[in-house]
Structure to design on (142 residues):
């Protein structure tokens, strides 16, 4: 199993990978848009893998809604470390931020990612168009 190796140099912007973008990068999936892959390997940004994504991946895997080459516990932590993602945890303030987000949709994982991105001023790499309705900076695909 390959992976997109993230390059980091100097003071750069910080980008939170939405769960599907993170998985595509970790699995070197062709679904990862070329522009995001180029940015990930350019050294122009620090990339964040959030604990909410780990939680989402495990739940969806357990429910049979996500097919992976191995169980998440068998590869995910090591893959995150080896690719160069920085880790971020669910924080109290991020949870409290949920109450200040507009009630656009009910996906708790997306909302936690958005709340933490707003809290920390991170950009978000996603292909999910619903994120455009939230007060968060998004990475354009092209």
């Amino acid at each position: 199993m390959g992976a997109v190796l993230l390059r980091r140099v100097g003071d750069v912007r910080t980008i939170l990978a939405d769960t599907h973008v993170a998985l595509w990068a970790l699995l070197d999936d062709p679904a990862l848009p070329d522009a995001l892959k180029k940015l990930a390997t350019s050294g122009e940004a620090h990339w964040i893998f959030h604990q909410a994504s780990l939680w989402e991946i495990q739940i969806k895997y357990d429910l049979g809604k996500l097919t992976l080459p191995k169980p998440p516990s068998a590869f995910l932590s090591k893959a995150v470390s080896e690719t160069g993602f920085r880790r971020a945890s669910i924080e109290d303030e991020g949870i409290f931020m949920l109450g200040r987000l507009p009630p656009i949709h009910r996906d708790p994982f997306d909302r936690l990612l958005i709340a933490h991105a707003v809290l920390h001023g991170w950009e978000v790499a996603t292909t999910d168009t619903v994120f455009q309705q939230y007060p968060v900076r998004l990475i354009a695909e092209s």
About this structure: The domain at 13-133 is CATH 3.40.50.1010 (Rossmann fold).
